[in-house]
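User: I need a structural model of peptidylprolyl isomerase from Sus scrofa for a docking pre-check later this week. Nothing fancy, just the predicted C-alpha cells so I can convert them on my end. Input:
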Amino acid sequence: MAVRARSWRPPPPPLLLLLLWVTGQAAPVAGLGLGSDTELQIERRFVPDECPRTVHSGDFVRYHYVGTFPDGQKFDSSYDRDSTFNVFVGKGQLIAGMDQALVGMCVNERRFVKIPPKLAYGSEGVSGVIPPNSVLHFDVLLMDIWNSEDQVQVHTYFKPPSCSRTIQVSDFVRYHYNGTFLDGTLFDSSHNRMKTYDTYVGIGWLIPGMDKGLLGMCVGEKRIITIPPFLAYGEDGDGKDIPGQASLVFDVALLDLHNPKDGISIENKVVPENCERRSQSGDFLRYHYNGTLLDGTFFDSSYSRNRTFDTYIGQGYVIAGMDEGLLGVCIGEKRRIVVPPHLAYGEEGRGNIPGSAVLVFDIHVIDFHNPSDSISITSHYKPPDCSVLSKKGDYLKYHYNASLLDGTLLDSTWNLGKTYNIVLGSGQVVLGMDMGLREMCVGEKRTVIIPPHLGYGEAGVDGEVPGSAVLVFDIELLELVAGLPEGYMFVWNGEVSANLFEEIDKDGDGEVLLEEFSEYIHAQVASGKGKLAPGFDAEMIVKNMFTNQDRNGDGKVTAEEFKLKDQEAKHDEL
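Assistant: Understood. Predicted C-alpha cells for peptidylprolyl isomerase:
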C-alpha cells in the first residue's frame, strides 16, 4: 500500500460504556470466573510465542470479543458487526473490569475474562440489555496496540555486505512488500501482483510512516516497518482493506533506487596497462555484456548468445546511458556501467526490463574501430639488406598468426606447417592484407591491424571470423619472386626472334596447335629466355595466351592471326 493517507484526527473524547452501548458500539470487558463472582478473573487461553509489546494504560487497542452471561447467553459480539472494538485503555472509555483485564495483553493473545457487577454495570445494568448485578463473561482476542507517542519502528533483518547508497528524500524506489496488520493478517502484497511498487520517497506520495520507514535503505536490504495508524490511514482506514485505527506492518525488500538527477556511474574493473587508443563518439564497438537490475536480477547477456553486441557509439544506436558509458574505453577493458531509468528504458521498460528500472551492465570491450580507419603497420624487424620491396604482381610466401584485438587466435600458418602464398594485388587476400604486405622485404616481420571494412566486413566468415571484427596479423615474409609488369603474364628476357612464328611452327605447315605453342613457351621459360607470371597456374596462362592468339577460335593459330603484345595492346600474351 503506498497511497497517501488522510491526516490523523485525535480520538473522540472518553465515553462511558453505557453511551457506547446506546450508540451501538459494543464495549467489551474482562473477567473469567472459576471462583468468586465478586472479583475480576482472567484466564489466558492463548499466548503467542513472541510478544514484543503488551498493553499499558493509555494505549489504544483494537480487539474482538464475545460477551455472554454466566449461563452462556450471548448479549453482544464484535464479530457480528465484522468490526473490532477500538478504544483507549485506562481512560474511562471502558467498564472498569475491562480496563483492567486488557492490561498486559499481547497481540494475538486470547483471554477469557469474568467481570463482577461492581466492575461492570453494577446494580443498574443497562436497560433491555444487561440486567442489574450481572456477572459478565468476555472472550477477548487482541488485534492491535498503539500509543499516541509511538513512532515508526524499523527492524532490518537483512543488509547486503556492500551498501554504496541509501534512500534519501526525493529518490525514486522500486520495492516489494507484504502488508499485514499487527496480528499477521495479510491485507496487500506486491508479490501477489508480481509487480514492484514504484514511487518517490519523502514528497508525499506515500503514507507518512512509509515515507519515513524507507529512508536509509540499501538496495537488497530487507526490513520490517511498523507504522501506527496516525502515520498511516488514521481512524477512517483506506475505505477498502484497511480498517480505521489499524497499525500496519510492511515487510519490505528494496530492489532499486535512483534519483532523477542521477547520471550514469562507471566502475572500472580491469584496465589494460597498454591502452594506445580510447573509444570516441562515432567509433564502432564490439563488446560482451551481462545485464542485470540493481538487485542482481539477470535480464540479458551477449555471452548467452555467444556473440558480441556490435554498435556505433555516441550516435543514438544504444540507450543514452550506454552511449555515454562506452566512451573512453580501451580494448580489453572491463567496466561496470550503472544506468538510471531516464537514461535507459524509462517508465515503460522493455521486454523483461520493468519500468523505472536502474540497469547494470558489466561489459568487456573486445574491439573497436572507426569507419575512417585505415590499416596500421608496425615493423618489428628488418634485415640489414632490405632494398628489394614487395609490389603489386610479386609472388610472396609468408607465415602469419591471425588474431582478434583481444588476442583470440583465429588462424596460424606456423601451426599448419606451411606458408601462405599469394600474388600481391591479385585479390587473393582481403584488401587490408594486400595493403599490409606491400613494401616489405624478405625476412621482415611486421604486425598489420586491419579494420573490418578492409577485412571481412559486417558478415565476417561463418564459424571463423566474427562480423565487424578488427583483425591482427603478425607476419614474416619468407620469399619474394618479382612479378611481371602490370598487364603481362609472359615476358621475354632478351630479344624476340624475328622468325618467332616459324620457330613455334616446327612442322612448317603454317598452323600452330596448342601442343606446339605450349611446348615452345615452356622451353623458353626453362632456358631462361622467357618468364611466366609467378604464382599462377602455368598451363592456364599458356592456354589463355593461345586462346588470345586463336582469333577465329578454330583451335589453331596462323601467321596472319599471330601478333606480339606491342602489336595487340589489349592482350596479355607475348
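Before docking, keep this in mind: Confidence is low (pLDDT under 50) at residues 1-34, 569-573.
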